[in-house]
Each structure stands twice: as structure tokens, then as C-alpha cells.
Amino acid sequence: RLLQSAEAPKSKEVCWNWRQEQLPILKAIKNRRLEGSYNGYPVLPGYWGSYCLDGLAMALWGLYHSNSFEEAIIRVVNFLGDADSTGAVVGQMAGALYGYRGIKAGPPDRKVKYQARPDAGSISDMDKAP
């Protein structure tokens, strides 16, 4: 119901509208970090995406705003947090959407040091979120 209606469960939460260019979930993540809890359960300050609706919204966002299997994965894992889980979720959906032939075979062409990409998801603006 929440994903279909995009209704926030509480006033402190924002809608998980994964169709928007900027994922508004960052504001909710910031609120949880500042309060130290989510629905009464403690949260770790630098760890997000493990809550199922957050992880699903992040994966749907990455898939919706991508043109390839690789791009979907890069967008989602660059949110950091529970990147292995959110990457696995978007990987399954992207594999179904783009198919076997859409997955680039072999290891990456080269290894690069992590750096934020403008076309990828990012939490760098989290502290600036209203």
C-alpha cells in the first residue's frame, strides 16, 4: 500500500517516490540518524537501506533512472549504507529487466578509487536536506 500510494507512515518520514530524480528518502534517513531510532528501534548513524521499504525504494529508484544493468547497480550501491543488500535487490530487478545479454561479461575494465559520480545516488547532501 505504501509503495502504491506513496504515503509517508509518519509526519517525520517522506514519501518513497522513486520516480523523482532526487530520492527524497535521504530526508527520512537524516531524521533517523539525528533521532537515533526508527519506530522505537535503535539505528546506526551510517547504516541505512536495511529496512525493507527503504532498500526497495532505493533499488526501484536506481532501476527507474538507469539505462543498463551496470548503471542501475552503480546508482544504488553508491548510496553506501547496506550497499550489498540494496545492490543485490536492484541486481535481481535489473537482471530481469535487461536480461542476460544486458549484463556485461567479465571483470571491470579497470579498478578505480571510489569517487562520487553525478549520475549515481549519493548521500553527500544528507546534512543539507531540510
Record keyword descriptors for this entry.
disordered C terminus; disordered N terminus; two-stranded antiparallel sheet; 3% strand; mainly alpha; 130 residues; 41% helix; 2 strands; 5 helices
Indicate the radius of gyration in whole angstroms: 15 Å
What structural class results from the helix and strand content?
A: mainly alpha
What is the molecular shape? elongated
Total count of strands: 2
Strand content: under 5%
Spans of 5+ residues with little confidence (pLDDT < 50)?
Answer: 1-8, 124-130
N-to-C order of helices and strands = HHEEHHH
Strands of the largest sheet, in order across it? 1-2
Number of H/I helices: 5
Q: Describe the largest sheet.
A: 2 strands, antiparallel
**What is the domain tally?**
1
**Helical residue percent band:** 40-55%
Distance between the ends: 26 Å
Question: On the 0-100 scale, what is the average pLDDT?
Answer: 71
Describe what you observe in this structure:
By secondary structure, this protein is mainly alpha-helical. It has one domain (2-103). 41% of the residues lie in helices and 3% in strands. The protein contains five helices and two strands, in the order H-H-E-E-H-H-H. A two-stranded antiparallel sheet has the order 1-2. Helix 3 crosses helix 4 (69-77). The longest helix is centred in the C-terminal third of the chain and has 16 residues, at 83-98. The protein starts with a helix and ends in a 32-residue tail after the last helix. The model is unreliable at 1-8 and 124-130 (pLDDT under 50). Its cofactor is Mg(2+).
